Structure formats: structure tokens, C-alpha cells
Amino acid sequence: MSLPELSLQIIYARLAWTLIAASMLLSVLPSLLPKLFPALAQRTKLIVAGTVALVMVLPGAASPAHWLTLVFQYPSGLLAGYSLVALCARWTAKPVDFLLHPAFALLLSLLGVVLYLDAFGVLALGLYYRGFDADAAAVLAIAAALAGVAAIWLRFGAGGAALLTAVLLFSLLRLPTGNLWDALLDPLLWAWALGSVVVAARRQYLRRKAGSVARPLDDLNAAPELLRPRAGGIE
Questions:
Q1: The whole model's pTM is what?
Q2: Which residues cross the membrane (predicted)?
């Protein structure tokens, strides 16, 4: 398996962190600073994205991307793809959705648990190292690409487009590290997926709880005669 050039990895890190930071800022600025940014105009969006890009491309340790890479390693191609899709959505003023699709979130959460347990030696399956294997990585990349196409066809939101972006980056340029698993998952994306699963589970629990409370009231409304006093006494 061929590995990417270091210079190419550095360029990728700058671009990926630019996409991530710009998409996050454009998503949260109207909520955090509503007085300054009640509604982001196209010019404001361009200024924010351009400023983030200029800061990220600063040389060496002057760039925040340098320190972010030291702490979190290279962002996965999937996270970069999600950020690109989110940035396009912010540019077209689409509604902000801070959660991953529940199906994608659950899949990424389980995948992360297995990979991290394997990396810690709890499972000892050697899954991560198989991401460098040419044959295994090719099969998994094809499967991931087909899953991305199916997700787009089924209209599962941004997940399909982001997944295809990650597969293309890995297949064409071996980014970010030459390991397929690093193209599909990273600690930040895993934390985002776990949070999305927790929020989705809580929402489902609240819906069921609200439904169980509303069901007896619906039964009483459907049979109002049960609430009417009987004039003829006890029958």
C-alpha cells in the first residue's frame, strides 16, 4: 500500500481544518452572537471562510492547523466531507442540523468502539493494520463507495456525499494517512457520532413517554360517555 507524501498530508491538514472550522463558525455564529450575526449575508460568510483559510495556511507553528493536527491527528476524509457538505449548506442558507443521521451515527459509534478496543489490545484482531493492506482496503473502499451511493439514493442527508468524498480522497491520494480506517473515522467524528446517538435515543424516549401519556387521554376523548353522570342512579 502506497503512503501519501508528507507535503501532501500537510496541505490536506490545512484544507481539512479550514473546512471544519469554517463550517462550525458559520453554523454557530448566529446562535452564539445573534446581535452581531442575526443572519449571515453572503459577504459575511465569505469573510468568515476567507479569514479562517488565511489563518490556517500560516506557516509552521503559526497555524492553528499545526496544533490541531498534533492533538487530534489528521481529520478523517469523512469528517472533511461532512464539513464540506455543511459549508455548502450554510452557503445556501439551509437549516442547520447539528446531528448526524441516526443510522450513520450508530454505525460510526460501533465501528469506533471495535477499532479502539482492537487498538488497545482488548480484542487483538489487527483490524487497524488491515487498513494498510491493499486487497482488504480495496474491498472495504468499494463497499464504502456502494454504501455512499445507496445513502444518496435513499436520501440519507449528507452522509452519502461525505462518504463518497472520503473514499475518493483515499483511493486517489491515499489521504489522510494511507490507512482506510483513518479515512473513515477519527476521534472528533467518533465523539460527534456518540453525541448524535445519545441525543437521538433521548428524543425517541421522550416521544414514547409523551405517547404513553397521551394515549389514555385519547381513550377518554373517544368515549366521553364514561365521564357523564348517570341521572338514573346506579345501574
A1: 0.86
A2: 12-34, 46-68, 105-130, 136-154, 183-201
